[in-house]
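Ticket opened by: R.M.
Priority: normal
Category: complex prediction / small molecule

The reporter submitted a protein together with uracil and asked that the result be attached to this ticket for the collaborator who will pick it up next week. Submitted input follows.
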Amino acid sequence: MKNVFVSSHPLVADLLTILRDKQTGIREFRSTAEQISSLLITDASGDLSLSTKAIETPLTKMHAPVLSENIVLFTILRAGLAMLHPAMKLFPSAEVGFAGLRRNEQTAIAEEYYWKMPTITKNSLVFLLDPMLATGGSALCVLRKIKQAKEIRLVTIISAPEGITAIHSAFPNVRIYTGAVDQKLNARKYIVPGLGDFGDLYFGT
Ligand code: PRP
Ligand code: URA
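Result attached by the on-call engineer:
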């Protein structure tokens, strides 16, 4: 699948099994979600551009590499918060945006309840963070409002084929970095095999 990058890292596979297992308690679910997010965001940033700056080591002068991208993190509440802290550790200077979106339990259509936009320009590389890509409705709500960015990369822990198709029908250039592409959505638009409701499991609700 073009512009879909499924992690092949064995640690990601192992951590994902912990998240999927219904025996996993909240404490382990939280720490595992943060570990896997860190690996996936590292994967998604493996080809970022570098420039150089002049520095002096204790021994000599040199031109050393520095990240030259204007990184913006954008997270979808609530579940995306699980990925935000690992992302902020990797990109400590990045501006952060928030979309409060909740799927209507009957229709599975995302409804907006909060929005806080960071500065996004034609130089911004945005990492859009949301652990579950199901119908794609939530991510599409955000993508439509940040399309002025130079590039947007969607980072998810699990994706459904339906969600990937929905994103790429509207935004074919958005790269999707994910821990797994699962089989399908069920009648209630939950990902199968999936892991259940990520927000509820992470926040204990
Ligand atoms: C979950 C998840 C995604 C969304 C994905 O959020 O965090 O944002 O569903 O589904 P979609 O691709 O069909 O839009 P949910 O609405 O359950 O809210 P929560 O994060 O507050 O639990
Ligand atoms: N959101 C979740 O948390 N889980 C799903 O399976 C689908 C949407």
